[in-house]
């Protein structure tokens, strides 16, 4: 796969100046591959059916969120495929078509409307190579992009979230997180990040996960929630 595509991101010290409204958080952190991008469809196509894709993806989520210390993302994807009985051609197809990931409807508009008011960051369970390629598919200048490979651990370990906040120069109390899976809520609860769960496909909450402030099948409520964040 070509690695020429690079995400545009800058350190907090050199980030473009935003004009924060008193109601907005100072920063919003996003899960990437579930909250902003429709990776489910890509996995389904690589697996050969929606059922096979969802089973594979569920196993991948279980492995990565239970892994802790970073194991190469591509190896985790292959292991998950093997665990559910899929051939090696499935993870190969997923990687070969990686740049066909598409944003969920409303994602680009939400990011464009948020950027003048707060810093924006990605915290993703992915390799540096594939994570930054995926982040670059969204039309936004990210202030910070943190991958599991960079952090050395997978979410929901608190380290990736805290690394993003440190690079942004923002306290957890002044930031929010947009999750794509309820596994993230284990980490955001520890760090103290108020959370919006974009539960696009109707996932069942993982047992023991702290409930988010908002659960929605779309991003429609994100802007109103962000505007009244400090209310």
In short:
The chain has 231 residues and is α/β, with parallel strands linked by helices. Helices cover 39% and strands 12% of the residues. Its EC number is 3.8.1.2.
Topology:
Layout: E1 27-30, H1 39-47, H2 50-65, H3 73-83, H4 89-96, H5 107-114, E2 119-124, H6 128-135, E3 144-147, H7 148-151, H8 158-168, E4 175-179, H9 184-191, E5 194-198, E6 214-216, H10 222-227
Parallel strand pairs: 1-2, 1-4, 2-3, 4-5, 5-6
Helix pairs in contact: 1-2, 1-4, 2-3, 3-4
What does this structure look like?
The chain is an alpha/beta fold and 231 residues long. It folds into two domains: 12-38 and 102-227, HAD superfamily/HAD-like (Rossmann fold), CATH 3.40.50.1000; 39-99, no CATH class. The protein has helices at residues 39-47, 50-65, 73-83, 89-96, 107-114, 128-135, 148-151, 158-168, 184-191, 222-227; strands spanning 27-30, 119-124, 144-147, 175-179, 194-198, 214-216. A six-stranded parallel beta sheet has the order 3-2-1-4-5-6, sandwiched between helices. The protein is globular, with a radius of gyration of 17 Å. Residues 1-17 have low confidence and may be disordered. Its EC number is 3.8.1.2. It is an enzyme of class 3 (hydrolase). It holds the Pfam family HAD_2.
CATH class of the largest domain: Alpha Beta
Number of strands: 6
- Termini distance? 46 Å
Task: Write down the overall geometry.
Answer: globular
Quaternary structure annotation:
single chain
* Relative helix content: 25-40%
CATH fold call of the largest domain: Rossmann fold
Enzyme class: hydrolase
Protein name: (S)-2-haloacid dehalogenase
Keywords: Hydrolase
GO molecular function, one term: (S)-2-haloacid dehalogenase activity
